[in-house]
């Protein structure tokens, strides 16, 4: 259901949080590094440039994304796998485990974090960033349209992203014995183009929704959603302002 071309829209806005997360990862010479939810692998390749001696694994549940990642030139130290993010097992304990805007699709973050910590080597670092704008007008409007009788039955079981309070992540990981650095950032993106917020959502949040609908239903869904988004996110000559909050966690396991 994921479309690499659509996801690449607003590439700069989507990759900025990755670099802000990575800047807080203080590891000199890791042997094994993984990127969970690697997408097309562009940012995974950044990990190979920073840690040139490391074996790096890019993991994504979307075969379309991984196929695109494999098409692009890469070093021999980089491998891409199609796998469930929670269930993937690394070939060796990880010194760095990164996930940028992917874990919000996985249910039960408490159980998930325990599994991810188990994959770390002693002294290993878990670093993740997740969107936390699920109460924003964009997502409220999607929920409104999802609840309409025309769509409700088909979309009842379609997953919705979620993020817990940042204090919960700090507490869970601290209780597991990790040293935690956690913070939150709200970006104000000014998006270019017509129906810019809708175009943003088409790259992520709306993918599972549209995958559950036939083409006619999908068009009807978007035609219903579009005016709601235009009202909440009016366009200006300079673009469409779009507030977006993200939560960041960098946690180091004890040695």
UniProtKB/TrEMBL annotation:
Signal peptide: none annotated. One of its GO terms (biological process) is methylation. InterPro entries: Methyltransf_25, SAM-dependent_MTases_sf, Trans_acon_MeTrfase_C. Residues 33-124 form the Methyltransferase domain. It comes from the Bacteria. Keywords: Methyltransferase, Transferase. One of its GO terms (molecular function) is trans-aconitate 2-methyltransferase activity. This is Methyltransferase domain-containing protein.
